[in-house]
Design goal:
It is a single chain. With about 80 residues, the chain is an all-alpha fold. Helix content is about 80%, strand content about 0%. The chain is elongated.
Length: about 80
């Protein structure tokens, strides 16, 4: 988040203090827009991560043998119904 903020501050300072042509102002405004969009995307991703972290994840204990038995059963079913080319 620091990089987009640094860009925004740098280009806004440039626009306020520099004597520049209209073309240079438009270029700086484009950079400001791009940096603002990057900051917006980072903020959105941070909020999404915060939301995901705060959700409770249901954990369930399972027996490893039961897991392998289920895997073997479904593998056999898939092989039985598999269509040969």
């Amino acid at each position: 988040m620091k990089t987009p903020l640094t860009s925004i501050l740098g280009y806004s300072d440039y626009l306020q203090n520099a004597k520049c042509s209209e073309e240079e102002r438009m270029n700086a405004a484009g950079h400001l827009h791009d940096a603002t969009k990057r900051l917006e995307n980072l903020s959105t991703k941070l909020l999404e991560l915060t939301y995901l972290r705060d959700e409770e994840i249901e954990q369930k204990e399972i027996e490893i043998n039961d897991l392998f038995s289920s895997l073997a059963y479904w593998t056999a079913c898939i092989q039985y119904f598999a269509v040969e080319p």
